[in-house]
Amino acid sequence: MLSQYTKIRMIIAIIVCLFLIGVFLFVRRDKTVRVATFDECIKAGYAVIDSFPKRCLDNESIVHIEDVGNMVEMQNEIQINAPERNTVITANLVILGKARKDWFVDGKISGSLVDTEGIVLGQFVAEAEKGNINKTLREFSGKMIWRLRDTDALKGSIVLKKGKVTGTGSEIRMPVFLRPD
């Protein structure tokens, strides 16, 4: 049989173990990072599903979807190949892509770079590459030099406008991160 002293020691040991487990679980719970956006989810180190658009699954099983502007809806009309979506761009920017013929006016597409508040940071004209007139999607390229103005935004969008058409489906927006030089 166990002595009274041994029983008390065992009870104290069990209480201490339960206390330590509780402290461990409480501390671990407090370090859980709660996220509200796709970017926060990635920074917190949660799993990313490589799809289009990309998806990030947080610890509460909430799926956060990458902001790709309206690129999914417009992919049969126009595609921006460079820079890639949600990448960091610098002041000397080259835009490459493909578009249907009705996006061009005299072989050119107008575009701009805007911040999250809609402030235009730069404008450019992309020209259709010569020799691919009969293809469904014509390749284009353009260059732009831009700089941050009175804004603290570090995120923006490259916007390309469709020919002479206005209204729904008349532009494509591709999100980018801004890094001033």
Task: Provide structural commentary.
By secondary structure, the protein is of the alpha+beta class. It has 3 helices and 11 strands. It has an 8-stranded mixed sheet with strand order 4-6-9-8-7-10-11-5, with no helix packed on it. A 3-stranded antiparallel sheet has the order 1-2-3. The longest helix is centred in the first third of the chain and has 27 residues. The mean pLDDT is 83.
At a glance:
The protein has 181 residues and is α+β, with helices and mostly antiparallel strands. It has 3 helices and 11 strands; from the N terminus they run ααβββαββββββββ.
Which descriptors would you attach to this protein?
181 residues; 36% strand; alpha+beta; eight-stranded mixed sheet; Immunoglobulin-like
The radius of gyration is 27 Å
**Which CATH architecture of the largest domain is right?**
Sandwich
Span from first to last CA? 79 Å
Please describe the biggest sheet, giving its number of strands, its sense, and whether it closes into a barrel. 8 strands, mixed
| Total domain modules | 3
Number of strands: 11
CATH topology (level 3) name of the largest domain: Immunoglobulin-like
Order of helices and strands: HHEEEHEEEEEEEE
Could you tell me the strand content as a percent range?
A: 35-45%
> Structural class, from secondary structure content?
alpha+beta
C-alpha geometry:
elongated
Q: Can you count the helices?
A: 3
CATH class of the largest domain: Mainly Beta
Strand order of the largest sheet: 4-6-9-8-7-10-11-5
Please bin the fraction of helical residues. Answer: 10-25%
Low-confidence stretches: none
Q: Provide mean pLDDT, rounded.
A: 83
Q: At the fourth CATH level, what is the homologous superfamily of the largest domain?
A: Immunoglobulins
